[in-house]
């Protein structure tokens, strides 16, 4: 994340007691946010958590600890989606049925139907009924982040 974004997030800690007044100490807090947070959203979450749980301004070590904790939570949330397994992308299939003299008929099928069709020998062959794999954003948080 950028230093200016880190500085902005650091300003929010001013509502806590004993927020340092010396520029050198403030610079340390900004620096640790900048280094340990992967992006502005991460820093925003870290600062929100600090404000909610502390009454005095955190030390750089405390900021680092919360930043690591938050990062881990994000990773677990990603892994938890049973549809996309954290990738944010969901696979789906089209069953394409050629119709003589007309455009082919396209129908969306889910993983289960696709597996059943594959078991029946439906693959991908021009001019024959085929399965076409496609990908879309998962409706979970991971998908929205893509
Ligand atoms: Zn998902």
- For the terminal residues, how far apart are their CA atoms? 18 Å
Report the portion of residues in β strands: 15-25%
Can you count the helices?
Answer: 6
The global form is: rod-shaped
Radius of gyration: 25 Å
Total domains, how many? 2
What is the typical, i.e. mean, pLDDT?
91
The oligomeric state is: single chain
Topology pattern, helix = H, strand = E: HHHHEEHEH
Cofactors, ions and other ligands in the entry: zinc ion
* Biggest sheet features: 3 strands, antiparallel
Please give the share of residues in helix.
40-55%
Which residues form runs of ≥5 with pLDDT under 50? Answer: none
Short description:
The chain has 146 residues and is α+β, with helices and mostly antiparallel strands. The chain has six helices and three strands, in the order ααααββαβα. Zinc ion (ZN) is lined by residues 81, 83-84, 138, 140, 142-143.
Q: Would you mind describing this structure in some detail?
A:
The structure is a single chain. With 146 residues, the protein is α+β, with helices and mostly antiparallel strands. The protein folds into 2 domains: 3-79; 89-145, no CATH class. The chain has helices at 3-11, 23-36, 40-53, 60-79, 111-119, 141-145; strands spanning 89-99, 102-109, 130-137. The protein has a 3-stranded antiparallel beta sheet. The protein is rod-shaped. The chain starts with a helix and ends with a helix. 17% of the residues are buried. It binds zinc ion.
């Amino acid at each position: 994340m950028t230093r200016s974004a880190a500085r902005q997030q650091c300003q929010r800690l001013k509502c806590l007691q004993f927020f340092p007044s010396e520029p050198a100490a403030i610079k340390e807090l900004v620096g640790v946010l900048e280094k340990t947070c992967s992006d502005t959203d991460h820093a925003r979450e870290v600062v929100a958590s600090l404000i909610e749980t502390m009454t005095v301004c955190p030390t750089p070590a405390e900021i680092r600890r919360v930043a690591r904790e938050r990062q881990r939570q994000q990773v677990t949330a990603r892994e938890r989606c049973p549809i996309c397994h954290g990738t944010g992308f969901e696979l789906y299939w089209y069953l394409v049925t050629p119709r003589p003299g007309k455009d082919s008929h396209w129908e969306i099928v889910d993983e289960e139907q696709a597996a059943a069709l594959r078991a029946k020998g439906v693959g991908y062959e021009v001019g024959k009924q085929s399965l076409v794999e496609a990908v879309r954003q998962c409706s979970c948080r991971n998908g929205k982040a893509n």
